[in-house]
Amino acid sequence: MKKLRLLAVLTAFFTASCFCFAQNWKADHVFLIGLDGWGAYSVEKAEMPNVKSLMDAGCYTLKKRSVLPSSSAVNWASMFMGAGPELHGYTEWGSKTPELPSRVLNEHNIFPTVFSELRKAAPDAEMGVLYEWDGIKYLVDTLALNYYAQAPDYNQYPTALCEMACKYITEKKPVLTAICFDNPDHVGHADGHDTPAYYAKLKELDGYVGRILDAVKAAGIYDNSIIIVTADHGGINKGHGGKTMQEMETPFIIAGKNVKKGGAFEESMMQFDCASTVASIFGLEQPQVWIGRPMTQVFK
Fold it and tell me: Signal peptide location in the record (predicted)?
């Protein structure tokens, strides 16, 4: 009998501890949707009703700046790692390993990511990263994840990533998920930025965002979720990597539980502030080596 009482007390203490820990979170689920090559210049003209409904429901900026160069791997790394290339060491569009020695390495021998930081704080949290571009997996610390997967070639299976994401969300109800589309970047390279083809691709991608939101609702977790939609870089003509605002400025849109219906915010934001903002949702103490700042003004 004494053993049963002790077990009951320990169980109650553990449950209470978990509850108190979760109470430090602004939401129990975060979904970060990334659109590669989505320049902020395009938002006003784009037909993206699902994205714009999130803008209306939450907060956003169209002036988040990339790090330099304004290209893929270096900016996805900064988005997840809370620092710039001078510290995390990924400096090129296709970096798979750091060209500069990372200033700090975590227990998985990679620069600390928001995924590894959440894993330490919440060992049982379900986390996943789904993507079309293979380069993403080198930048997220896959050892910290429960699940990561690349979608089949979107030229043959354009809806594959969306379908994978919806399945994962409804089955696992993850705590933190990144869903990284490889467009409109490819259309930007092939047809050009700010072209009819580019806007047609944005309309298509908005449809996938809508389906992902529906999956979150179907999973029964929408009211306890925060949705972020953002990008690694923009573009100009048929390229990117340079120092124009068309290449460097990208949207950052956030909506959901405990997010203000505040519209556009004017405070400056950099790519590495994304990781800090996600970390703040989960009440994480960010690593000293991170230089990102959470966008605390967007929260209630």
Answer: 1-22
Q: E-assigned strands of the chain?
A: 29-35, 59-65, 127-131, 147-150, 176-181, 225-230, 249-256, 263-264
Amino acid at 75: N
- Under the banding of pLDDT at 50, 70 and 90, the label for residue 23 is low
C-beta neighbour count of 26 within 10 angstroms: 17
Task: Find, among 2, 12, 70, 85, the residue nearest to 37 by Cα.
Answer: 70
Is 27-298 in CATH node 3.40.50.960?
Answer: no
Under 8 Å between Cβ of 47 and 205: no
Which segments within 204-295 are labelled E, that is strand?
A: 225-230, 249-256, 263-264
Over residues 234-284, the pLDDT tens digits come to 999 999 999 999 999 999 999 999 999 999 999 999 999 999 999 999 999
Query: How would residue 13 be classed by pLDDT, with cut points 50, 70 and 90?
Result: very low
Q: Is the dihedral of CA 3, 5, 6, 7 positive or negative?
A: positive
